[in-house]
Design a protein that fits this description.
Layout lengths: L1 E5 L5 E6 H10 L2 E4 L7 E4 L5 E4 L2 E4 L14 H7 L15 E4 L14 E4 L1 H7 L4 H4 L14
Parallel strand pairs: 1-6
Antiparallel strand pairs: 1-2, 3-6, 4-5, 7-8
């Protein structure tokens, strides 16, 4: 069961387990936010003490949450490239992710080295760069934007 965690400014910063939420409320690090529907959880300790845990808690003090760029996972690369093969005149749907500079040649798992590709183009490219293969990329690979 997940409990929504809000910052002191009431921005959602994530979720936590019921156990962690109880510890945060009991220690004073967070306060419960009761909703109108009354969907609170009641947790009883071994000694018989009951703690009411609402589905949301808010931290007592503001916590700075740093910005993190999304990881270049297969799903994120496919989403960035619109599920379309990025090689040359190909118009097929992409189902794989390919390294522009192959890993065997020092290519990294980074946003600027990964592109979406169909299986046929991925296999045909093999261990070559797009230039060696005689194809061009439709667009330059860049980091996923939040916009």
């Amino acid at each position: 069961m997940s409990i929504v965690v809000l910052n002191a400014s009431r921005e959602i910063i994530g979720t936590t387990s019921l156990r962690r939420a109880v510890n945060m409320i009991v220690s004073g690090a967070a306060v419960g936010i009761t909703l109108a529907d009354g969907a609170d959880h009641v947790v009883t300790s071994a000694s018989g003490h009951a703690v009411i845990v609402p589905p949301m808690i808010a931290l007592s003090e503001y916590v700075h949450v740093p910005f993190r760029r999304p990881a270049p996972t297969k799903a994120n690369v496919l989403a960035r490239d619109g599920q379309l093969c990025q090689y040359g005149p190909c118009t097929r749907r992409a189902t794989t992710v390919d390294h522009v500079v192959p890993k065997s040649r020092g290519g990294a798992n980074s946003w600027d080295n990964l592109v979406a590709a169909c299986i046929r183009c991925n296999n045909a490219k093999g261990n070559r760069t797009p230039r060696e293969w005689g194809r061009r990329l439709k667009q330059r690979p860049e980091a996923l934007s939040w916009a």
